[in-house]
């Protein structure tokens, strides 16, 4: 890190603190040459690799925008969309990779979207997974129904355990 005052190519870290949201680190540094102090803020970058091979910075706003279209006319609030985008970003960052394939982002969206609204999930999945026929929709609905059967059986087991 170059000193902003004398351009010396080195500095010493005096203090480090994480930001309130935990997304960045604030460091106080001191130049060994001129002894002046300055602050740096370090953030991790997450890049998206598009199908074309181009890369761009990850954007929660793009997640919200894409999912908002699928949720149009559904009882989903802006807060719900913001929380979904945060979950997606957390999932992607937990992979440990600085570059994420755009396809992986779509996969990361599907799970929380399914939990949020199944109709919006079907809409998003139909575009994202390029459904071409009614059979594709039927297969997706069958998977959703299978999830309901599992949850219904769990609820029935819980109810019978509490009444016994």
From TrEMBL:
Look up keyword tRNA processing and say if it applies: no
This protein's cofactor list reads:
Zn(2+)
The free-text cofactor remark is:
Binds 1 zinc ion.
Q: Which Pfam families match?
A: ATP-cone, Zn_ribbon_NrdR
Q: Domain ATP-cone spans what residues? A: 46-136
- Kindly state which keywords UniProt assigns to this record, in alphabetical order: ATP-binding, DNA-binding, Metal-binding, Nucleotide-binding, Repressor, Transcription, Transcription regulation, Zinc, Zinc-finger
Ligase as a keyword of this entry, yes or no, is no
Per the record, the zinc finger regions (unnamed) lie at 3-34
* Tree of life domain: Bacteria
Record's function text: Negatively regulates transcription of bacterial ribonucleotide reductase nrd genes and operons by binding to NrdR-boxes.
User: Would you identify the family this protein belongs to, as annotated?
Assistant: Belongs to the NrdR family.
Q: Which HAMAP family match?
A: NrdR
PANTHER family tied to this protein: TRANSCRIPTIONAL REPRESSOR NRDR
> What is this protein's name?
Transcriptional repressor NrdR
Source organism per UniProt: Cellulomonas edaphi
Q: Which gene specifies this protein's sequence?
A: nrdR
């Amino acid at each position: 890190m170059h000193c902003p005052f004398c351009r010396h190519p080195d500095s010493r870290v005096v203090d480090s603190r994480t930001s309130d949201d935990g997304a960045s680190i604030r460091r106080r540094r001191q130049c060994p040459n001129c002894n002046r102090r300055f602050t740096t803020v370090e953030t991790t970058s997450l890049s998206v690799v598009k199908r074309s091979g181009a890369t761009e910075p990850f954007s929660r706003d793009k997640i919200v925008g894409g999912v908002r279209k699928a949720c149009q006319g559904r009882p989903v609030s802006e807060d719900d969309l913001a929380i979904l985008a945060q979950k997606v970003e957390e999932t992607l960052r937990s992979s440990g990779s600085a570059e994420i394939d755009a396809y992986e982002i779509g996969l990361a969206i599907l799970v929380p979207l399914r939990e949020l609204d199944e109709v919006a999930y079907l809409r998003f999945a139909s575009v994202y997974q390029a459904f071409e026929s009614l059979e594709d929709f039927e297969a997706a609905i069958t998977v959703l129904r299978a999830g309901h059967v599992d949850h219904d059986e769990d609820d029935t087991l819980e109810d019978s355990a509490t009444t016994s």
